[in-house]
Design brief:
The chain is of the alpha+beta class. Helices cover about 65% and strands about 15% of the residues.
């Protein structure tokens, strides 16, 4: 869900820039980092972003570069005259004190530095008249974000689906070791009995052995894990916004892998389980990028 989009629009007063940046998040958290957008348009923009981007931490930045004519500040001429006349009266009242011949220039500079001489009145940059152009720029920036996400999504899809295939391949390795594991369990139990010089009833021994092996059986876990892998692929291929559902499927996959490891009772299978966990953790990290 990381993405970036930018657009610019030329207004009568200057150039307005719009940037949209997105990061991973479970929900849709929109932050508008500017005071340029009027309050009556903010809700509209938020809704437009939510409908288009759906999920992510989304930051919107607006910048404005004024035209030269617009950036020039207005001088209040009447106020300058009033300040100048007051300063002039003060100068004339200073009898007996030598005054520099450049005093008029000094008085004028002083008058221009007085409060409220320069009009800093702000005007609205985004108005009802230019809003259609501004809205079109927002749409352009959102499209750029979606295009960015689409490119990233293609690489993401390839990575995630290949890791699911890796897990299925590792499950095949577990199945190949299954007969060896069962025989090893039987041999170990028999060896322990031989060391104890115990002579159990053969039929009872077989019953207990079957019961013990059933407790270590991982066939159900293998079947469920394969089903979850298939469900993962069906979901990512068949739904427009599968991200949240994939998170739940990943949890179920992890549960079956963990149970396989706890029941394995075999060093080789446990090594394979560690590899499966590593693949699944990478899938989980990448799934946060999926809408």
């Amino acid at each position: 869900m990381t993405g970036y989009g930018k657009a610019e629009v030329s207004l009568a007063a200057g150039k307005l820039g719009i940037e949209i940046r997105t990061l991973n998040a479970k929900g849709c958290d929109i932050g508008i980092k500017s005071s340029l957008l009027p309050k009556d348009k903010e809700l509209l923009v938020r809704q437009k972003i939510a409908d288009t981007l759906h999920r992510g931490t989304i930051d919107v930045f607006l910048s404005f570069e004024a035209n030269a004519a617009e950036s020039a500040k207005t001088i209040n001429a009447d106020l300058v005259k009033e300040y100048y006349n007051q300063l002039l009266d003060i100068r004339n009242s200073l009898k007996g004190i030598a005054i520099d011949t450049d005093v008029n220039k000094f008085l004028m500079i002083s008058a221009l530095r007085m409060p409220d001489v320069v009009d800093n009145k702000k005007t609205d940059i985004i108005t009802e008249e230019n809003w259609p152009s501004v809205e079109a720029a927002f749409d352009e920036a959102l499209k750029a974000v979606c295009d960015y996400r689409a490119k990233e999504g293609a690489a993401l899809y390839k990575d995630v689906t290949s890791r699911v295939a890796n897990i299925e391949a590792l499950e095949n390795e577990v199945e190949a070791l299954e007969p060896q594991r069962i025989e090893a369990v039987k041999a170990r139990l028999q060896k322990n009995l031989d060391e104890l010089a115990a002579k159990p009833d053969k039929e009872r021994f077989e019953q207990e052995l079957i019961f013990y092996i059933e407790k270590l059986d991982i066939n159900e876990e293998k079947v469920r894990l394969r089903q979850h892998c298939k469900y993962f692929m069906d979901t990512i291929d068949g739904e427009p916004f599968p991200g949240k559902k994939l998170g739940f499927i990943i949890q179920e996959m992890g549960r079956e892998i963990n149970t396989t490891g706890s029941k394995a009772n075999n060093a080789d299978i446990q090594k394979i389980v560690v590899k499966m966990k590593d693949e699944l953790e990478k899938i989980r990290e990448q799934s946060l990028n999926i809408l």
